[in-house]
Amino acid sequence: IGVDATLEGTANTLDNSLAIVVADGGTVTDAGAINNLAAGSITFNGDGTLVSDNNSSGGEIITNDGAIIVNSGAGDLVTVTSPGITNQGTGSIAVNGGTLTYNGTITNTSTSANAVNVAVGAISNIDDLNTSAGTVTIAGTNTGNITGTGTAAIDISGGLVGDLVQGGSGATDVSGSIDGVLTYTGSGTLDLDGTVTGAVTTSGTATIASTSIDSLAVQAGGDATIDGATIVTNATTNAANLTVDATLSTTSITNTASGVAGALDVNAAVTGNVINSGDATIAANVDGSVTTQANGDTTFDGNSTVSGALVTDANGATTIASGTTQ
To answer: Terminal CA-to-CA distance of the chain, rounded, Å?
Structure first.
């Protein structure tokens, strides 16, 4: 399709199994559905437009089993207008430059390792990217929420402006930034080395080494490990495990739920107060106070120094091994 040219379907459905290459300013459109079949590809090399249901009469969506590729330059915009986008089979959506903008929901069921891949550039203005299979990779920027279920894997090394909710079994890696909240309930693993401006909540298995988290909540059944220097406004656990194997700076760690599975295990220095009404073992320095509340059981089992107050409330228990100083 040439510069500023238009390819428009005439049979109320556009089924594509060939390679469509769209030059700057080009348009692909249809009054009905656009089905990019497994052998098909639609590639944009500049500004462009992709529109299904252009008469707004039937609710026909864009379905992709092949490849939709944005190879545009910085500042170029590919605008998609459709009642919905479904990426399925082994289909892929790739942004290798420029911005793909779409005001709607992208549904991914593709099993491809490159199901949605923002390598450079951005996907912007989406309401939600819902993925249940394959891998979503954001090395550029995604503006809009991402929700994972099923076997979905998610890798964010760039920026997400929105919330990430992952309940899928695929690996979740965040080494970039999330300007929103992160909620992890998946049965795989969360590896968080990036930054999160909002709250991080996990009831799954997580390793964390982040220079900036607003708050961390490890909920029932969760198992989180601080394995790199981490800064978090405050941290809480409830019937869950939190292991501190690297320095943690926080206002406070609050560990609750005595008598059920879950414990706080501190093996590296903590800057901040520790408040325990569950089971806690401390084998490192605490630059703050340690308070054992009712039903709490706190054990110092190594050479530890507590800079602040050491308080044990009624019905709480504190065991101090030799070498612990205050």
So the answer is: 75
The 10 Å CB-count burial string (b at 16+, else e) for 11-22 is: eeebebeeebeb
Residue 292: alpha-carbon gap to chain centroid: 34
| Structure tokens that stand for 94 in this block | 């790739």
Residue 10 has pLDDT above 90, yes or no: no
- Could you give phi then psi for residue 192, rounded to 5 degrees? -110, 105
Task: Say if residues 116 and 93 touch (Cβ distance below 8 Å).
Answer: yes
User: Residue 81's pLDDT band (boundaries 50, 70, 90)?
Assistant: very high
What's the rounded mean pLDDT across residues 125-154?
97
Single pTM value for the model: 0.95
Does position 27 have pLDDT exceeding 80, yes or no? yes
- In angstroms, the CA 223 to CA 175 distance is 19
Nearest-angstrom CA–CA distance, 99 and 140: 10
Q: Are strands 297-300 and 286-287 parallel, antiparallel or unpaired?
A: unpaired
Does 325 score more than 80 pLDDT?
Answer: no
> Rounded to the nearest 5°, which phi and psi values hold at 42?
-125, 115
Question: Per-residue DSSP letters for 245-306?
Answer: -S-EEEEEEEEE-TTSS--EEE-S-EEEEEEESSEEEE-S-EES-EEE-TT-EEEE-SS-BB
Residue 320 burial (10 A CB sphere; 0-12, 13-18, 19+) = middle
C-alpha distance from residue 263 to each of 227, 244, 284 (Å)? 17, 11, 16
For residues 114 and 96, the answer to whether their CB atoms sit within 8 Å is no
Q: How far is CA 187 from the centre of its chain?
A: 14
The Cα–Cα gap between 78 and 208 comes to 36
d(CA 232, CA 250): 5
Cα 63 to Cα 7: distance, rounded to the nearest angstrom:
17
Angle (nearest 5°) at CA 177 between 100 and 97: 25
